[in-house]
C-alpha cells in the first residue's frame, strides 16, 4: 500500500489535494452552493467546528473573491476547539460552541452585526454503534443550532451535517420551528454508503417571544411561551435533494490513477498537515519503537519541539 492507494480509492481526496483544498469535504459545500446559491448576498459568515478548515477555505475563496470585485466588506469567523492553520481573510476563534462567550466573541468580530450564513460540518468520532453515533451527532447539531440562534440574522441560512437515522424526523421538527425552509441535501461527494447528509435551513424566523439562552436545552418544553407544541402529524417530512451533476465523480467508485491519457499521474502531498493531532504521542512511540514497552515516556518529555512539529508525517 503506497501513497497512491488512497488517491485511487477516493477520487475526491485526490482532487482536493490537486486543487489545494485541505479536505475532501470542501466539495460538499461547493456542490450544495451550486444547488442552493448559499453565498448569494452573504457578507458575514460563520464556520462552526471548522478544523482543519476546508469549509472556511471555500468561504474565503468564494466570498473574498467577490469582495475584490468591489462588493461589500466580507468577514468570516471560524470556530473550533482545535487549533487551525491560518487562512486569508478568516478570523479564528478557539472556543466551545456551547458557551455564550463564544457567541459574544463572534458578534464582536462582526462589530455587533449578525451573520448572514452559519455552516457546521462537525461530527463526533464515530464508535460504530449507530444509535450512539446518531444521538451524539444530533446533540452536536442542536448545539450548533443553539449558538446559531444567537448570531444569525432573520432570513439567514444555516447548513449543518446530520445523520439520517430512524429518529431524524424529530430533528426536522425542531429545525422547522426556526426556519421556514428545511431541506435534506446529499452532495455527490458524500458517499452513498454513509448515512451522512446535510440540512439546509433557509429563512431564519424564530418564534415570537423566543429568547436565545445557552443555559437551557433547545425545545425542552419549559419555556413560558407555548410555541413548542407541534400541530398536525408528529412526523415531519422534508424534501431530499441530491446535489451535484450526475456526470460528477462517484465518491463510492474506485478510479484509475491515470484519469487523463495525456497527463501522467503525479502524487500530490496534502495541502495542510494536521496541527498537534490527537495521535501525536502514538506516532512518537511508534517511531521510537516504544509501543510495546511499559511506562513509555510521553512525546512531550522526549521531544522539546513536539508542540512545533507534527510527528508521523513525511514529505
From TrEMBL:
Domain Ribosomal RNA methyltransferase FtsJ: 21-204
Active site: residue positions: 161
Keyword S-adenosyl-L-methionine set for record: yes
Catalytic activity annotation: cytidine(32)/guanosine(34) in tRNA + 2 S-adenosyl-L-methionine = 2'-O-methylcytidine(32)/2'-O-methylguanosine(34) in tRNA + 2 S-adenosyl-L-homocysteine + 2 H(+)
GO annotation, biological process: cytoplasmic translation; tRNA nucleoside ribose methylation
Pfam families: FtsJ
Subcellular location: Cytoplasm; Nucleus
EC number: 2.1.1.205
Comp. bias (Polar residues): 298-315
Region (Disordered): 292-315
Keyword Iron: no
GO molecular function: tRNA (guanosine(34)-2'-O)-methyltransferase activity
Binding site for S-adenosyl-L-methionine: 53, 55, 80, 96, 121
Key words of the record: Cytoplasm, Methyltransferase, S-adenosyl-L-methionine, Transferase, tRNA processing
First-tier enzyme category under EC: transferase
GO cellular component annotations of the record: cytoplasm; nucleus
Chief place where the protein resides: cytoplasm
Function according to Swiss-Prot or TrEMBL: Methylates the 2'-O-ribose of nucleotides at positions 32 and 34 of the tRNA anticodon loop of substrate tRNAs.
Family note: Belongs to the class I-like SAM-binding methyltransferase superfamily. RNA methyltransferase RlmE family. TRM7 subfamily.
Subunit organization: Interacts with WDR6; the interaction is direct, and required for 2'-O-methylation of position 34 in substrate tRNAs.
Protein name: Putative tRNA (cytidine(32)/guanosine(34)-2'-O)-methyltransferase
Higher taxonomy: Eukaryota, Metazoa, Chordata, Craniata, Vertebrata
Amino acid at each position: 500500500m503506497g501513497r497512491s492507494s488512497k488517491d485511487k480509492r477516493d477520487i475526491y481526496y485526490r482532487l482536493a489535494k490537486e486543487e489545494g483544498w485541505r479536505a475532501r469535504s470542501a466539495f460538499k459545500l461547493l456542490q450544495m452552493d451550486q444547488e442552493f446559491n448559499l453565498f448569494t448576498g452573504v457578507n458575514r459568515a460563520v464556520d462552526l467546528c471548522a478544523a482543519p478548515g476546508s469549509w472556511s477555505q471555500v468561504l474565503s475563496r468564494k466570498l473574498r473573491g467577490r469582495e475584490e470585485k468591489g462588493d461589500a466588506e466580507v468577514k468570516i469567523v471560524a470556530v473550533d476547539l482545535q487549533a487551525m492553520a491560518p487562512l486569508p481573510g478568516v478570523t479564528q476563534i478557539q472556543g466551545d460552541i456551547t458557551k455564550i462567550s463564544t457567541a459574544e466573541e463572534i458578534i464582536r468580530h462582526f462589530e455587533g452585526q449578525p451573520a448572514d450564513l452559519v455552516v457546521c460540518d462537525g461530527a463526533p468520532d464515530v464508535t460504530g454503534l449507530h444509535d450512539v453515533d446518531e444521538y451524539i451527532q444530533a446533540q452536536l447539531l442542536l448545539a450548533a443550532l443553539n449558538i446559531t440562534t444567537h448570531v444569525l440574522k432573520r432570513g439567514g441560512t444555516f447548513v449543518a451535517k446530520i445523520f439520517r437515522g430512524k429518529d431524524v424526523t424529530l430533528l426536522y421538527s425542531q429545525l422547522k420551528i426556526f426556519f421556514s425552509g428545511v431541506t435534506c441535501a446529499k452532495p455527490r461527494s458524500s458517499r452513498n454508503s454513509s448515512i451522512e447528509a446535510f440540512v439546509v435551513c433557509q429563512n431564519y424566523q424564530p418564534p415570537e417571544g423566543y429568547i436565545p439562552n445557552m443555559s437551557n436545552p433547545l425545545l425542552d418544553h419549559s419555556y413560558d411561551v407555548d410555541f413548542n407544541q407541534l400541530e398536525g402529524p408528529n412526523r415531519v417530512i422534508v424534501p431530499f435533494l441530491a446535489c451535484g451533476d450526475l456526470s460528477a465523480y462517484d465518491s463510492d467508485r474506485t478510479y484509475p490513477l491515470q484519469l487523463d491519457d495525456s497527463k501522467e499521474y503525479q502524487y500530490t502531498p496534502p495541502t495542510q498537515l494536521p496541527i498537534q493531532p490527537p495521535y501525536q504521542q502514538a506516532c512518537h512511540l511508534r517511531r521510537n519503537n516504544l509501543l510495546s514497552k511499559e511506562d513509555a515516556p510521553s512525546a512531550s518529555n522526549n521531544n522539546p519541539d513536539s508542540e512545533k512539529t507534527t510527528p508521523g508525517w513525511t514529505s
